[in-house]
Amino acid sequence: MCGIFSIFLKNPAAAGGSELFRYGGRTESLRELAFRQSSKQRHRGPDYTGLVVDMDAGLVMVQERLSVLCVKTGSQPFVSEDGTVLLAANGEIYNYRQMAEVVNGVRKAGDGEYVPRSDCDVIIAYYERFGAEKLMETIRGMFAFVLYDKKTDHVLVARDPIGIIPLYEGTDSEGNVWFASEMKCLVEKCSEVKVFPPGHMYYGKRHKLEPKSYYKPQWMFEIPRAQADLEQLRVALEAAVVSHLQCDVPMGALLSGGLDSSLIASIATKVMRKRHGLDYRLKTYSVGLIGGPDFEYSKMVSDYIGSDHTEVHFTIDEGLNYIREVIQHVETYDITTVRCSIPLLLLSRFIKSEGIKMILSGEGADELFGGYLYFYQAPNPEEFHWETVKRVKNLHFSDCLRANKATAAVGLELRVPFLDTDFVNHSMSIRPEDRMPQTKVNGTVRSMEKYVLRQAFTNDYLPSEVLWRQKEQFSDGVGYSWIDTITEYAASHVSDEDFAAASDRYPINPPSTKEAFYYRQIFEELFPHDSCARTVTRWVPRTDWGCSADPSGRKQTVHLRRK
């Protein structure tokens, strides 16, 4: 995982080729300004800081690098061979080898073989030969990047289809355009900050940048009718895991003991043993309060797949200490995201201390297959489908935001095979009747949430107790007293008088509980602009389906409480 930062001056000619320019009523060094502002996200890339400034073009690019792939040759920003294309990229391009082969297939006579400096370097090579549109049709991975073409004076900015990698855009008082992986780099300098939308690209002159969607799968616009093919589903997920295992540094996997992370760890183990022999043991990690319900199941999976497993325990007091830090890192006031990010940040610190740089995780399956327990209340297949579409499209506001930023806070890269673009398209193209949980037949539950996914992996992947374990949301699975206590703790910091005025004080997304008010209060101190508040979308179940508004899975009627 890395961090990228860039500024495009509205009027490059005014600088006269000098790194000094007029900004905020005074003379500023563009190089120093960029280096200073990007340092606010340097935790994302602790291995190297690269900076390119080009005052003739009126731009600066910075990359904070976490070296995971092509460690010796992948430092950025990249500059093309002829010096006309500049690139700062964050993420992993999983099909970069295939893209490099295509580039080599169209070499001109006399050209040498193209050897990519890293996975992201292929973005320049493919763009130069095929253009922006074809690049975005072909690329597969998690990414956000900013590219500048001196020949055309065009800017290309793009973000992956799901929004696994964060990207923000800002405009300052002088009309200069800023981009950064984290909002904290922009908030002090930009009068307007917004989320760069997933699945979109900017391509054109810097003063005419309009977002354009390049990701338009049919399932976003119509209800699919294809029946589930269990063999195809299994093969598609296995292929996604294989693609996500390209790595040149020590790696591991999160293992909560729930279905999703357990499947990823099991598949990864099988793949790595084919490559490295039967003695290979994947390093896996779980986190929770002592006695938390996840530990029983994570140990069960670890024993079954033979992983090198570590349980990381934390106390409630330790977790409460991190509320403000998590809001600062994750840049949200959404209740469930804050609740979940604290255990993940604590776990990430431990994992990084063991020398691990990349970790696999199971985010995304609940959105694709309607795994949250409130989906039992879906009134029909059509509404179920559109709710899963909404959840997938909003992942960058919640689970992807948490998964990326809580791990990047300590310089750890998290990968999510369930959100591989091809797997997302395969899963979301299955008719909703096959993806939705069956509620009740003659008073008994006929099947479970994510039933079709479970059915696809019945053959020697997981112990049956885990394969058929009910969904337990991460913040619940670490220990039921965690949510109960953090809710009470947050509420104790808000008076009845202050809460009564919540809508007046916070007209944008007004908090509906004292816990939400407390998180919002901290967020406003860190990110005071109204535009920052608008970057947050709250995760709330469908109350119009008769569901509890509290995001905890334990609040849904079908939850089976375990001690």
From TrEMBL:
Sites where the protein binds ATP: L254, V287, S361, G362
Top-level taxon of the source organism: Eukaryota
Residues flagged as site, Important for beta-aspartyl-AMP intermediate formation: E363
CDD domains cross-referenced by the UniProt entry: Asn_synthase_B_C, AsnB
Catalytic activity as recorded in UniProt: L-aspartate + L-glutamine + ATP + H2O = L-asparagine + L-glutamate + AMP + diphosphate + H(+)
Name of the protein in question: Asparagine synthetase [glutamine-hydrolyzing]
Domain Glutamine amidotransferase type-2 as annotated: residue spans: 2-207
